[in-house]
Amino acid sequence: MADQPSGAEAPRRFLFLDASARVGGNSEQLARLAAEASLPPGAEQQWLRLADHPLPPFQDLRHTGDGGYPEPAGHERLLLEATIAATDLVFVAPLYWYSLPTAAKLYLDHWSAWLRVPGLDFQARMRGGTLWGVTALAGGDDKAEPLIGTLRLTAEYIGMRWGGVLLGNGTRPGDVLRDERALVAAKSFFAD
Fold it and tell me: What is the residue range of 85's domain?
């Protein structure tokens, strides 16, 4: 992902992508707790709410014209630059209908374009980083399998290390702070 100077170990850079439709929801609370408790020493962190940086609908141009995509601009450019600058990408995404929220899925759809922007080398720049997930759900952990599978397979496809998913249980804001199992797991979630 981010280029690192030779001979010096650069600090890890965590990009937290909050895909929730609710500000301060359970997934965000759990992710902030995990970041505070378990990020490696010296790690940098950036938090972006996808709702604050809306992306246009994705258009599949692979089989039109030359199949190329234009240089990203606006919110898309900001998200692209933050993504490739990160060593660790964390999806903060509550479970919506057994999968990722729309904002997170749309962001991933735009990766299809970024893979094809001439000279960007998106996949090569992402390779070697780590992809993580933090999610809150109501009900059993097995309900999160589609979300977990999407993130794990994305990491595998792009050549990233799969860091795993931190799961918390909660419906109303603040409920996750009563999930003892999630709180214990948060304390060491990002530790290597």
Answer: 13-186
Phi (first) and psi of residue 17, to 5 degrees: -105, 105
Those residues whose C-beta lies under 8 Å from the C-beta of residue 154, and which sit 6 or more positions away, are 108, 111, 131, 160
Instruction: Count CB-CB contacts under 10 A for residue 124.
Output: 11
Residue located via tokens 């933050």: 82
pLDDT at 60: 82
Is the residue at 7 inside a domain? no
Whether 53 is covered by a domain: the verdict is yes
pLDDT tens string 94-127: 999 999 999 999 999 999 999 989 899 999 999 9
167's CB contacts (< 8 A; 6+ apart) are 135, 136, 137, 141, 144, 182, 185
Residue 91 bridge partners (DSSP): 17, 133
Write down the residue that tokens 């965000």 correspond to: 28
Residues 161-181 pLDDT 10s: 999 999 999 999 999 999 999
Per-residue tokens: 179:
């999930």
Two structure tokens written together for 101: 């929220």
5 located within any domain: no
Does 87 score more than 70 pLDDT? yes
